[in-house]
Amino acid sequence: MAELTDRLSTFHGGLVLKHHKELSARNKVVRVDRPQSLRISLRVNRGHVSEPVVAVGDRVNKYQVIAQPIHPFGVVVHAPFSGVISAIEEQPTAAPDAESAPCIELDTDDQDRHIDYLPPLPDNHRQTLIKRIQDAGILGMGGAGFPTHVKYDHQIPDLDSLLIINGAECEPYITCDERLMLDEPVALIKGTDILMQAVNASQAVIAIEDNLGGVKSLLDKTIQALDLPAIRVIKVPTIYPTGGEKQLIKVLTGLEVPSGQTPLSLGIVMQNVATTKAVYDAVEHNRPLTERLVTVTGDNVGRPGNYLTPVGTPFYHLLAQADCAMSDIDKLVVGGPMMGYPMPNVDIGVDKTTNCLLLLTKDSSKPDLATLPCIRCGDCVKACPQDLLPQQLFWYIQGDNLEKARDHHVFDCIECGACSWVCPSHIDLVSYYRYAKSELTYLDYKKAKAQLAKQRHESREQRLEDIKAERQAKRRAKTEKLKNKSQAKEEISAVLDRIKNKPKDDGKSS
Amino acid sequence: MTGQLNTSGSPHIPAHFSVTKVMAWVLLALVPALFAHLFFFGIGLLVQIIIATTAGYLFEWWSLTWRRQPLKPFMTDLTVPVTALLFALCLPPIAPWYVAVVGMFFAIVVAKHLYGGLGNNIFNPAMVGFATILVAFPQAMSLWLPPTGLVPMGNELQAIGWQQSLSIIFLGFPQSVLPVDAITAATPLTALQTGLQQGFAQSEIVQGVVFGDFGGLGWEWIANWIFIGGLFLLYKRIITWHVPAAVLMTTIAASTPFYLFNADIYMSPQQHIFSGGIMLAAFFIATDPTSGCSANRGKIIFAAGVAILTVLIRNFGAYPDGVAFAVLLMNLSAPLIDRLTVPQPYGKKGQP
After folding, report:
1. Are residues B37 and B181 in the same domain?
2. A298: which of A72, A358, B71, B330 fits an S-S bond (Cβ 3.0–4.6 Å)?
């Protein structure tokens, strides 16, 4: 299994960014007032759509299951409040490009006495825990939204693995993980312990960035108090994107996740701190995942801070809670300023991966700088944490030479945006790589389909050919027989017999 | 609700880098060398810079207009003055005005815009301009002045001022009054080549006064100031160490065997480094990212190629210095080197 190294390693490139965390980090967490209606997306990020198991007009209890996955990579969806289902329809969601997905609209009420908790756990076996994580609808809350139980199902049961709890939020502005670690150290450490059982890990590391003041000592104290010495807290340098899965693994273990594979290939499981807390809630309190901490921060935010937000809360409701003045706002970003997605309006619901709403005025968002041609200055090469040649990729993609981009490892791009950020020509490089990846994936799919069709066609041709050959062979054999007199006689008598014994025709069939 | 919000792509916070800033730092880094030049060779260089920059901007404007490109971003990106300055630093200070104009025509119109403008040029524009005039105006290109202190004492021409520089540059030599030879002097590299052709041994030639302490009088100090400017660019992270280190070290490595083999006809490594254009190439020309290589390994190969070709041209070629031709030849090879030196990314180390 992967081992922690005594000395931390470094990854190539990276950026030192102004982190703007002081804006929201120090304020106490505020629980969001119950919204009148929720808009709960049935697809989180770009994952698989779950199927609603309720109908419009149905009354649901708090924590009642309202949608079930139809794909193994989907997640269960629970109602954050009791209320009435008012609509089930396609709506824009808090995903990249605000992509539309089926959403359940829930008119909430305050009759919270009807609560469908998850049943108490019978035991603490590994499979039981994994099943509980699945039933609680938990997914990677750091951003990717990959269903958590799937990670563990694919784990080889007897292999000892290393669990990394990722508390290194390298994006500027976002502080929900930091706040969670400060406010809920016991839940986090106990959650880590539960995850260690679920993934068969004998050690766990909680990685935090070295700009978080009192977090390490607080967590260390908690670990000591709970007597869980297998859990360690390690500070990693604050260099963007140190919180990226691949970069953090490199920093902690010196190992690189092989291209195209997951950390499991190294015996590593990585989980975000918010996910860890959700697992704790599901196991200890039988609560499904229906709310999360969301950082609301940026410009013109009256009360920046972290908000305990029910899944499906419309952005306008959350922004109103934080006293945001929207009149001068140019951009509303879900996530951080480096990788977050801009939203077209505030009429979208928070989902399980929404970690931050960032408001930016024209002055602080990217001003409309003229895009100049690439001068190949190589600043992007110096910044790239994946050791790619961004300017060469750009060159090939611009010339629609996508296969060349593949040869230059475009699929190893993690879209962290470091190249776009440093580009003195202000080229939106990441968009080019996204385009190339989706286009290549589509071309591969088309090629595979064409290949399959070709194979089918060929095997059909072959089959027809075979049948023809068989017939010809039979006919030839018959002709051969008829040539020989005695055999011909036999043949003729056999045919006559057959005719004689033929059942009487009812005249309808021919 | 404010209607539709801006949905342009990430990142959403600016970094405040720009091509203009990069070019401004390069210009700033050239200032020490520029002053050294002016100190040793007089005010003529300033006139050449003004001619080259003006001509450069006119050609840029003209090219952008007929290519129907927006004027503002490209006229303000400061790439023209960088090209003009690098080009002018290679010019003899009292070369006729049309030399600079023709050179800048080839730099801006031919090397840059005919290949697609900023960022698309295969060749280094300043070197194309310089190589063109080197071939086209061999005589004008030999009009180097003696470094200050070399002009015979008592001669009223020892300091060439504004007026004289201007009149020589724009009106040509008033032959009747001033013989050309009275005020011009060979560069160390030219002196060496001529000397060798006349059958002198190197050790005899370098006794000549133009050779200074360790390279060439004046030239060695200009090289030092270029070096300082280069260190500044390294500090500002405009360039990486790969190209300068590879150019200088390869120059030494490639010239040492020749020198050891026959010190009478081959220059010492130290003279290679401190005379001619090698220092400028190391920090300001071979580091041009557009016409150079992308990957670090590629940069080193590219830079080593520049150094080896320069040494070969100086030792065996018809021209006293070969930096411009070496750079242009390596510009040609850059795409091939790029293709062969793609680094293995994260997670693919050790894979083919």
Report:
1. yes
2. A358
* B6 → closest Cβ in A330, A346, A377: A330
Going residue by residue through chain A, which has 510 residues, state the pLDDT in tens, using 9 for 90 and above: 577 777 889 999 899 988 888 888 888 899 999 999 999 999 877 778 899 999 999 999 899 999 999 888 889 999 999 999 999 999 999 988 888 999 999 999 877 667 888 888 888 888 889 889 999 999 988 877 888 888 777 656 566 789 999 999 889 999 999 999 999 999 999 999 999 988 888 899 999 998 887 899 999 999 999 999 999 999 999 999 999 999 999 999 999 999 888 888 888 999 999 999 999 999 999 999 999 999 999 999 999 999 999 999 999 999 999 998 888 888 999 999 999 999 999 999 999 999 999 999 988 886 667 788 998 888 999 999 999 999 999 999 999 999 999 999 999 999 999 999 999 998 989 999 999 999 999 999 999 999 999 999 999 999 999 999 999 999 888 888 777 777 778 878 888 888 888 776 555 544
User: What is the residue range of A312's domain?
Assistant: 295-361
3-state secondary structure of B275: coil
Domain check: are B163 and B236 in the same one?
no
* CA contacts within 13 A on the Cβ side of B154: 0
Among A344, A378, A509, A451, smallest CA distance to B5 is for A344
- Provide the whole-model pTM: 0.84
Chain A residues with CB under 8 Å of B15 CB are 421-422
User: Domain count of chain A?
Assistant: 3
Q: Are residues B134 and B223 in the same domain?
A: no
What's the 3-state SS for A98-146? HCEEEEEEEEECCCCCCECCCCCCCCCCHHHHHHHHHHCCCECCCCCCC
Work out how many domains chain B is built from and give that number: 2
User: Hey, are the CB atoms on A386 and B22 less than 8 Å from each other?
Assistant: no
* Chain B, nearest residue to A431 by Cα: B9
Of A392, A412, A421, the CB nearest to B348: A412
Distance CA A196, CA A460 (A): 53
Please tell me whether residues B227 and B168 are part of one structural domain. Answer: no
ipTM of the complex: 0.82
Measured in angstroms, the CA of B161 and the nearest CA of chain A are apart by 39
Question: Which among A345, A409, A431 has the least Cβ separation from residue B348?
Answer: A409
One domain for residues A280 and A380: no
Same domain, B214 and B175: no
Q: For residue A387, list chain B residues with Cβ-Cβ distance below 8 A.
A: 343-346
Q: Tell me the helices (H) and strands (E) count for chain B, helix number first.
A: 16, 0
Record: contact A430-B10, CB cut-off 8 A: yes
Is there a contact between A424 and B17 if contact means CB atoms under 8 Å apart? yes
Cβ-defined contact of A424 to B19 (cutoff 8 Å) = yes
* B64-75: b (≥16 Cβ within 10 Å) or e: beeeebeeebbe
